[in-house]
Design a protein that fits this description.
Elements (H helix, E strand, L loop, with lengths): L1 H7 L11 E5 L1 H4 L10 H15 L30 H5 L10 E5 L6 H7 L9 H27 L4 E3 L8 E3 L2 E4 L3 H8 L3 E5 L1 E5 L3 E5 L1 H12 L3 E9 L7 E6 L9 E9 L2
Parallel strand pairs: 1-2, 1-9, 2-6, 3-6, 4-7, 9-11
Antiparallel strand pairs: 4-5, 7-8, 10-11
Helix pairs in contact: 5-6
Length: 268
């Protein structure tokens, strides 16, 4: 009997059916005209909407109270973070469906460093390219940390995952190696992986930039999510109010069932 039960348990490295992959567009969460500047209002709004989409309601239909998980002290905070360990210990769960993956763009992070050094062209024999590779990764990983913190403040158990650190690499800018075991294992244990466009090693070019859109396509092929949602920013002159554009996708490789475009409006 024990052997039969063990056989029924899913392997921690087997792909799990993913409900949704969410792309946070760089222009939607950063101020692209200002170097390494986060659009705090848009980021907070996006994280709150994502929390709402992931929430598991109580029996009366009310959402569970969010458990903030950013327990780090931010610059300028007058006091240490307050953590109610007794209340947290008594919680039955987080009240969210964590069967999501988040991938974000770089926006005003990373592009300056990459373009000034030519990282996307490769050539690590060049001191400029090697220095730019380091500088680019410092920039994009710092944004990743801030997005993870913003999601954590909304009660979403997020963990940052950099493609370079996970061993992803390319060959002439096409994915050559993409170990997703850490992503899959994190999903199985109830975490929400948060990935980003990154500087990676390339078999032929030495290095290049792996974009968030390429990451999403690879994960969609591997995990077959029901939805892929793109959060984008458009001028409010084009629309009146928020627009959610949903339509059935018919693709040759049947990557996903639906694509959704959630449009955040700007005043420019």
């Amino acid at each position: 009997m024990a052997e039969e039960a063990a056989q029924e348990q899913p392997s921690p490295t087997a792909p799990r059916k993913v409900r949704c992959i969410v792309k946070l567009g760089g222009a939607a969460i950063t101020n692209k005209g200002e170097l390494e500047s986060i659009n705090e209002e848009s980021l907070q709004s996006a994280c709150a909407q994502l929390r709402q989409a992931m929430s598991e309601s109580k029996g009366d239909g009310a959402p569970e109270k969010a458990l903030g998980m950013d327990w780090s002290k931010r610059h300028g905070d007058p006091a240490d973070p307050a953590v109610d360990a007794e209340w947290i210990s008594g919680m039955a769960g987080l009240g969210v469906d964590t069967n999501f993956i988040v991938v974000h763009g770089a926006g005003s992070f990373g592009h300056f460093q990459a373009s000034r050094s030519g990282v996307h062209k490769g050539g690590l024999h060049s001191t400029l390219v090697k220095a730019g590779f380091v500088a680019t990764r410092i920039s994009v990983t710092s944004l990743n940390q801030e997005i993870v913190r913003a999601l954590a403040r909304e009660g979403i158990p997020s963990v940052g995952m950099s493609p370079f650190a996970c061993g992803w690499s390319t060959s002439q800018r096409k994915i050559a190696s993409a170990n997703a075991s850490q992503i899959i294992q994190s999903l199985h244990t109830g975490f929400v992986p948060v990935l980003h466009g990154d500087a990676v090693l390339d078999e032929l070019l030495d290095c290049t930039i792996l974009s968030g859109d390429v990451i999403i396509r690879h994960l969609a092929q591997l995990l077959s999510p029901k939805y892929v949602v793109f959060l984008v920013l458009l001028p409010s002159l084009l629309f009146h109010g928020f627009k959610i554009l949903s339509y059935q996708i018919s693709m040759e490789d049947n990557l996903v069932h639906h694509f959704l475009y959630l449009v955040i409006l700007s005043s420019f």
